[in-house]
Amino acid sequence: MFRSILLFGEARMGLRSLALGMVVALAGLTAFASPAAAQDSIRLGGEVEGRLQDGDAQLTSGEYVDVYVFEGRAGQQVTVQMSSGDVDSYVMVRGPSGFAEFNDDRDDGDVDSQLTVRLPANGQYRIQATTFAPGESGGYTLSLIEGSGPEIARQGGGQVQSGTNAGQLSASDDSISSGEYADSWSFTGTPGQTYVVRLNSAEFDPYLMVRGDGVEEDNDDDQTGRGSRNSRIEFIMPDAGEVSIITTSYEVGETGAYTLVLEEAGGTTAVASAGGSTVRPGQAVTGRLDVGNDTLRSGEYMTVYTLNGQAGDHIEVTLRSDQFDPYLFVQGPGDFAVANDDDDTGEDGVNSRLVLTLPASGEYQIVATSYAPGETGTYRLSVSNTDAGSVQTAVPSRAGNSFADGVSLSGMLSPSDEQLTTGEYADRYVITGRRGDRVALDLQSEAFDTYLLLRGPDDVSADNDDGPNGTNSRIDMTLPADGDYTVSVTSFQPGEVGPYSLTAGLSMGTPRQAGVQGGPRVFAIMVGISDYGGYSSDLAYTADDAIKLAEDLRREGVLNPSSIVLTDADATVGGVRRAFAEVAAQAGPDDIFLFFFSGHGSQQSVSISGNELDGLTETIVLRDGQITDTEMAELFATLDTRLSLIVLDSCFSGGFARNVVNRPGVIGLFSSEEDLTSQVAVKFQAGGYLSHFLRTGLTGEANYDGDDLITAGELTTYLRRKFAAEVMDVQTQTMDGQRSYQHLVVERGGVQVDDVVIRIGRG
Question: Is residue 207 within 8 Å of residue 200, measured between CB atoms?
Fold first, then answer.
């Protein structure tokens, strides 16, 4: 339906568009719409609690829906479970290349849903948690695990089954003597058979124990797990044929979902005596991976070498081969376990390299293996002493080097350090970060011109030579993924040496971003008119646009209580002007002002000028009159805010851009160009496409980097992408009937792309 003004006495427009909209609406009753909800992340092994309720996004067929996203890889099998005591759950998974699967009932007569799928491609997948029938509301639990899914209840404990089991550590569980929550599982197996049990979780640091007649095994971190915190124990079933498996956490008070995997052992997994020899610093050995070697549980051939070390020793271990992709890990006293696939410097191809400091005196095992199962060939393993300035590139799992905790240290670049291929000396550190963390790293030295590098998951690569202060270096960025990030401290010129200091921790962003306050800082006037009371033709959903926007912003905790919603009979010219006077008087320099309108727009003839090149001025149509673009500019001139946003979802709204976005700190978002109409977004049950996507963007979907700061660049990019995907084929027309397509108009004026629109999720 075209949304241009239809005053009595004027020719009516858009009847063909109305008919088309009805077809789309009817089609929506049998097809799933794209979700209008904010997308929350969920990890493999994770579990979330949610609630479907009034104000949530809805499918076109009327069911409430929440959306969760995760990153998957081609060939990966995952299982999604949705359970509820309040609703008949329905779960859908969508992904790259049009992938779509759904499930209503897990079993006959079971209203909970379980869906196991094999992912067709690498990329982001969306889980839609919804209901079987429209209008159902209530709480639910959603879990995502790798594999074919658990066969037992989520609470954990009881009889363990071969394969994948699932559980939940919670405050209602029993506790072991040291205070950690724990579930107790029992397992009956074949006496003398070797079993492997693994405890995996993305929500806490797993700790695993096995107890039985003559069996007493504990494990914190799986030393063959290539750096993960998950736990693994291999044990022989005693003559009694039964053991207890205790699933718990490393730290007191940790809770969350987990999977417990039990399998019969295959291949050799112990590494203490796997056929290598003793090595010492300054020594290089050659070997061969081949059929007949011992193997890791995951199938890779391996050889193990023993190194006797002292606490504080600084050593470098390299593993090179031109016949297979090397993989190297070292394990030792105190659950020390570090691993490396490819040399973090990027200078040595797929060869592996570890530079580390031994945490304790004792015997260490160096495991030479391959990246993929079944790889064979010759290799060369070398061990050497290195200078204390070359800090470990892999650290003990308990080292506590995290951006969240903060890192502050001093070091020394020296001629005994590793050298880059261009001749600069370098020290390396590993710091753990989480997706969405905004972090800052500062490198300072009075002895040399510093250079700072950061490498990490998702191919992160950030370099800095000179920060804001002379030759010192600074990196400020948002981390795209959970994981370990390698920080390289080096110099701008080859051969430079001397002391330095490095600090790393969480950041509030650039100075402009750091000054943005969280909480209810959005002072908004939200206007939507569906019932024009005879002044113009009525519209569908437009009043709801204003109401839902207010609800969503209030739910996010960003809407100031002084904000005003005007719909239908209250949305008069006088009402809007009074609202401006009231809200503008309260919004200050730390706040954002938002004027939102969903309804009719029109044009009026005026003299040709620099602002009105076509001799037409644009208006928004209220219940009893109109406000022109010139009058709107005058209202915006009364504001004294950090940032002001005008959003008009109406015909010809693009004509407001030149008038209103005429001073710093104003962003204009308009649903169509100044000579074109806008349409009702029937497929989304919204008065307009801009209204719909503004809501979903501001409540999370535009938060691309996960840092809870929705910037001008993120918001406008999100809106452009959504319009390109959903609106590019929506037909529209001029006042005199020339046909075209609806396009979003964005005018940022002097607002920079990294200027913050709102800070969500924080007080």
Answer: no
